[in-house]
Amino acid sequence: MLARLEALHGTLNQQYFGGDLGPARIRLSGRMRTRLGAVSARRSPEEPVDIGISLRHVNEDTWAEVRATMLHEMVHQWQVERGYPADHGPLFRRKAVEVGIEPRATRRLGQQRPKQ
Protein backbone atom coordinates (compact mmCIF):
# COMPACT_ATOMS: atom_id res chain seq x y z
CA MET A 1 0.00 0.00 0.00
CA LEU A 2 2.84 2.37 0.78
CA ALA A 3 4.27 1.92 -2.72
CA ARG A 4 0.82 2.64 -4.18
CA LEU A 5 0.56 5.86 -2.14
CA GLU A 6 4.07 6.92 -3.19
CA ALA A 7 3.15 6.33 -6.83
CA LEU A 8 -0.07 8.31 -6.31
CA HIS A 9 1.94 11.23 -4.93
CA GLY A 10 4.11 11.22 -8.06
CA THR A 11 1.11 11.05 -10.38
CA LEU A 12 -0.77 13.84 -8.61
CA ASN A 13 2.38 15.96 -8.48
CA GLN A 14 2.69 15.78 -12.26
CA GLN A 15 -1.02 16.20 -12.92
CA TYR A 16 -1.83 19.08 -10.58
CA PHE A 17 1.48 20.71 -9.66
CA GLY A 18 3.44 20.30 -12.89
CA GLY A 19 5.98 18.13 -11.05
CA ASP A 20 7.06 21.16 -9.00
CA LEU A 21 6.60 19.57 -5.57
CA GLY A 22 9.58 17.91 -4.00
CA PRO A 23 9.60 14.32 -2.87
CA ALA A 24 7.64 13.52 0.26
CA ARG A 25 8.04 10.82 2.86
CA ILE A 26 4.74 8.99 2.82
CA ARG A 27 3.76 7.03 5.90
CA LEU A 28 0.73 5.08 6.99
CA SER A 29 -0.37 5.90 10.51
CA GLY A 30 -2.24 3.53 12.75
CA ARG A 31 -2.27 6.27 15.40
CA MET A 32 -4.54 8.72 13.60
CA ARG A 33 -7.91 8.44 15.29
CA THR A 34 -9.68 11.56 14.07
CA ARG A 35 -7.80 12.76 11.01
CA LEU A 36 -7.58 11.28 7.53
CA GLY A 37 -4.15 12.73 6.79
CA ALA A 38 -1.55 15.18 8.03
CA VAL A 39 1.54 17.02 6.85
CA SER A 40 4.52 17.61 9.08
CA ALA A 41 6.53 20.63 8.07
CA ARG A 42 10.17 20.01 7.35
CA ARG A 43 12.93 21.22 9.64
CA SER A 44 15.12 22.46 6.79
CA PRO A 45 14.56 23.28 3.10
CA GLU A 46 16.56 20.18 2.11
CA GLU A 47 14.36 17.83 4.12
CA PRO A 48 11.27 16.36 2.45
CA VAL A 49 7.79 16.98 3.81
CA ASP A 50 6.25 14.09 5.72
CA ILE A 51 2.72 13.11 4.63
CA GLY A 52 0.84 10.77 6.93
CA ILE A 53 -2.28 8.96 5.79
CA SER A 54 -4.52 7.16 8.26
CA LEU A 55 -4.25 3.39 7.96
CA ARG A 56 -7.89 3.11 8.98
CA HIS A 57 -8.83 5.52 6.17
CA VAL A 58 -6.94 3.41 3.64
CA ASN A 59 -8.54 0.20 4.90
CA GLU A 60 -12.13 1.44 5.25
CA ASP A 61 -12.69 4.11 2.62
CA THR A 62 -12.66 4.17 -1.16
CA TRP A 63 -9.52 4.81 -3.18
CA ALA A 64 -11.17 7.99 -4.52
CA GLU A 65 -11.45 9.29 -0.93
CA VAL A 66 -7.84 8.36 -0.16
CA ARG A 67 -6.78 10.11 -3.39
CA ALA A 68 -8.65 13.26 -2.34
CA THR A 69 -6.95 13.13 1.07
CA MET A 70 -3.53 12.80 -0.57
CA LEU A 71 -4.28 15.76 -2.82
CA HIS A 72 -5.45 17.77 0.20
CA GLU A 73 -2.18 17.03 1.98
CA MET A 74 -0.24 17.89 -1.16
CA VAL A 75 -1.82 21.35 -1.18
CA HIS A 76 -0.36 21.72 2.33
CA GLN A 77 2.97 20.46 0.96
CA TRP A 78 2.75 23.13 -1.73
CA GLN A 79 2.20 25.76 1.01
CA VAL A 80 5.15 24.54 3.08
CA GLU A 81 7.52 24.38 0.13
CA ARG A 82 6.70 27.97 -0.79
CA GLY A 83 7.15 29.25 2.75
CA TYR A 84 3.48 29.76 3.56
CA PRO A 85 1.77 28.51 6.71
CA ALA A 86 0.19 25.09 6.27
CA ASP A 87 -3.35 26.14 7.15
CA HIS A 88 -6.84 26.18 5.65
CA GLY A 89 -6.86 29.92 4.95
CA PRO A 90 -7.62 31.76 1.69
CA LEU A 91 -4.45 30.60 -0.08
CA PHE A 92 -5.21 26.96 0.73
CA ARG A 93 -8.81 27.33 -0.38
CA ARG A 94 -7.83 28.90 -3.73
CA LYS A 95 -5.27 26.18 -4.45
CA ALA A 96 -7.69 23.43 -3.37
CA VAL A 97 -10.33 24.70 -5.80
CA GLU A 98 -7.64 24.94 -8.50
CA VAL A 99 -6.76 21.25 -8.07
CA GLY A 100 -10.41 20.21 -7.81
CA ILE A 101 -10.88 19.26 -4.17
CA GLU A 102 -13.12 20.59 -1.42
CA PRO A 103 -11.44 23.69 -0.04
CA ARG A 104 -11.69 22.51 3.55
CA ALA A 105 -11.45 19.39 5.64
CA THR A 106 -14.96 17.99 5.33
CA ARG A 107 -14.91 14.76 7.28
CA ARG A 108 -13.02 13.26 10.15
CA LEU A 109 -12.16 9.61 10.38
CA GLY A 110 -15.05 7.55 11.66
CA GLN A 111 -17.77 9.97 10.58
CA GLN A 112 -20.43 9.05 8.13
CA ARG A 113 -19.79 10.00 4.54
CA PRO A 114 -22.21 12.52 3.07
CA LYS A 115 -25.00 10.83 1.10
CA GLN A 116 -24.56 11.14 -2.65
Report on this model:
This protein is α+β, with helices and mostly antiparallel strands and 116 residues long. Helices cover 44% and strands 14% of the residues. The protein is built from 4 helices and 3 strands; from the N terminus they run H-E-E-E-H-H-H. It has helices at residues 2-17, 55-60, 63-81, 90-99; strands at 24-29, 37-40, 49-54. A hairpin with an 8-residue loop joins strand 2 and strand 3 (49-54). The mean pLDDT is 88.
Detail the topology: elements first, then pairings:
Layout (H helix, E strand, L loop, with lengths): L1 H16 L6 E6 L7 E4 L8 E6 H6 L2 H19 L8 H10 L17
Parallel strand pairs: 1-3
Antiparallel strand pairs: 2-3
Shape: globular
* Estimated structural class: alpha+beta
User: Uncertain regions: pLDDT < 50 for 5+ in a row?
Assistant: none
Arithmetic mean pLDDT:
88
What are the secondary-structure elements, in order, as H or E?
A: HEEEHHH
| Computed CA radius of gyration, to the nearest angstrom | 13 Å
Strand content: 5-15%
Number of alpha- plus pi-helical segments: 4
The major sheet is characterized as: 3 strands, mixed
Helical amount among residues, as a percent range?
40-55%
Distance between the termini: 27 Å
- The largest beta-sheet arranges its strands as 1-3-2
Count the strands?
3
